[in-house]
């Protein structure tokens, strides 16, 4: 029987593990699909406080893991396939392994959607990015593309004009999901060129980093090539919440809903990080909510000694 099982080993899960371990709860962290979460997939992180020269994402997350281990957190590889949170102790299944826990912290994160193009995943950190806030700074005076037609794409296109010399906004339709004010702002920005209805057919990277994109028009089927150093894919995120469907409250996009910080509708189950946050999505905000979840779990266990 575990005191606390933490699902997810990204920034939120590891911060929860550090706090829970320092409270002598000996937490068990189940790594999840992507050990280290989204930080493990980023390059230089310059906005995490405490690192004046920045730090590589994988190094930052590895440091957090070591810090949690130092205080006694245990880790298990594997992704959670089933949970029973109808009564305590909660039952968590990850493949062939089953665990019981007095409290549960869900920090399963969200996965940025990719376009599904050849080489796209390998080019993350070499011109392909899913995070303008994280990587925009590296594209000073460069031409870049943003793909998508939602609020994220509009926001990122506008934000990236702070750095980029030009931003192509590529969207597969002439209509946008984004709110009117966000579209108007992007349209009014002289650095943003709307390219619609177009899709990216190929990322051009002859030397192993992005140099351009081959586009295809969906009305006239015309081909177009653009020279860009960066491609920001802003086509949404999927919260990793499938196993909690019907068990915990979530919004229409699958983000888990919390009340009073990290508490859920099930006493003893707490939620932290991007699996419940589609607004801020920063390493530091995920870490902050991981800390809150551990403090909430500690308090819950103090009050429920059965
Ligand atoms: P979203 O609203 O779901 O939009 C995703 C966009 O990506 C859509 O335009 C969609 O095109 C496109 N897309 C999806 N799959 C694609 C594919 N395979 N290839 C090409 N294009 C694809 O996602 P989001 O923009 O990340 O926003 C998520 C939520 O956060 C929304 O509720 C949004 O309002 C909110 N948000 C708010 C703000 C703000 O208010 N400041 C900022 C960011 C996000 P189609 O339209 O053709 O399907």
Structure report:
The protein is an alpha/beta fold and 306 residues long. The chain folds into two domains: 2-112 and 237-303, 3-Layer(bba) Sandwich (FAD/NAD(P)-binding domain); 121-233, FAD/NAD(P)-binding domain (3-Layer(bba) Sandwich), CATH 3.50.50. Helix content is 23%, strand content 26%. It has helices at 11-22, 57-70, 132-135, 151-160, 180-188, 283-303, and strands at 2-7, 28-30, 44-45, 55-56, 74-76, 82-84, 90-94, 97-106, 110-112, 128-129, 143-147, 166-170, 192-195, 198-204, 212-217, 223-227, 230-233, 237-239, 269-271. The strands form five sheets. Strands 1, 2, 5, 6, 7, 8 and 19 form a seven-stranded mixed beta sheet that branches. The chain has a five-stranded parallel beta sheet with strand order 10-17-11-12-13. Strands 14-15-16 form a three-stranded antiparallel beta sheet, with no helix packed on it. The longest helix has 21 residues, at 283-303. The mean pLDDT is 96. It binds NADP nicotinamide-adenine-dinucleotide phosphate. NADP nicotinamide-adenine-dinucleotide phosphate binds next to helix 4.
